[in-house]
Design a protein that fits this description.
Blueprint (H helix, E strand, L loop, with lengths): L1 E3 L5 H14 L5 H10 L9 H14 L43 H9 L2 H6 L17 H6 L8 H9 L4 E6 L7 H11 L3 E10 L2 E9 L2 E6 L6 H4 L1 H13 L7
Parallel strand pairs: 1-2, 2-5
Antiparallel strand pairs: 3-4, 4-5
Length: 252
């Protein structure tokens, strides 16, 4: 199976995310040092002091960016109070597009799924009494979801031992589940390297970088955000094609 920009391990995901923010100049040196000194990165719930630094970084230093692709344009339309925090485990104006990517697509989905006729056709909110709107990232769900694993690294080990073929890939400009987090988690597995790190290509351009381990392949996708096919469809197709053929990603 393939999995992209996935939450893997609470500790390494949190640590890797903060390091990504700093290495991509999203936060100041001072905030980075405060996060590293006040946060545990292993706890289900961090201290109030740690959370206050997180909120300061997001509210005062990030700016109005798309955290799922820090280099993509931001939707200019009213987002109905959508907060950047919620992405952290939290007549139309002209819109900028990035090679076919529409930064307002999430807004369209929220409008669509909150229509009464759409909810009726989906047999959702039948009573009409749910006191909150449908959103792409539900704070209600986040607050009440308490049965998730803190790490799936042990599951990866079991699957590797069972000879299940695993490909992990990361869009390298996602700041929510960034490439640094995934690399920290893979390093923890201590897998033997089969094919050393090299650039892979799509349409004669570098599509990203990859390394093949015993039981797992890891690949980055250059310039892609959290949902790789949305930002880099040709590269995503190459990932899928190589995986289905059982071949390494092309070197040229």
């Amino acid at each position: 199976f393939q999995i992209g920009n996935a939450v893997t391990d609470n500790h390494y995901d949190n640590l890797g995310t903060v390091n990504f923010w700093w290495s991509h100049a999203m936060i100041s040196d001072k905030t980075y040092r405060r996060l590293m000194s006040t946060c545990n990165f292993r706890l289900e719930r961090e201290s109030n002091q740690c959370e206050s630094v997180y909120y300061y970084a997001m509210d005062q230093e990030f700016g109005n960016i798309d955290q799922y692709n820090i280099y993509a344009p931001k939707c200019r339309e009213s987002a109905g109070g959508i907060s950047s925090r919620r992405h952290m485990r939290m007549p139309h104006q002209p819109r900028s597009k990035l090679k076919g990517y529409d930064p307002c697509s999430e807004k369209y989905a929220e409008i669509y799924y909150n229509r009464a006729d759409v909810q009726k056709s989906l047999h959702a909110n039948i009573s009409g009494r749910i006191p909150y709107k449908w959103t792409a990232c539900s704070e209600t769900l986040n607050r009440n979801w308490n049965d998730t694993e803190s790490s799936i690294l042990p599951i990866y080990k079991q699957l590797i031992d069972a000879r299940v073929r695993i490909w992990l890939f990361s869009g390298d400009v996602d700041a929510v589940v960034p490439v640094t987090a995934t690399r920290y988690s893979i390093a923890r597995l201590k897998l033997e390297t089969g094919i050393s790190w090299y650039p892979w290509y799509v349409d004669s351009q570098v599509g990203g970088w990859t390394e093949v381990y015993k039981g797992m392949t890891f690949a980055t996708v250059r310039g892609a955000g959290h949902e790789v096919p949305v930002f880099k469809p040709r590269a995503a197709l190459q990932l899928l094609t190589s995986f289905l053929k059982g071949e390494p990603l092309p070197k040229s």
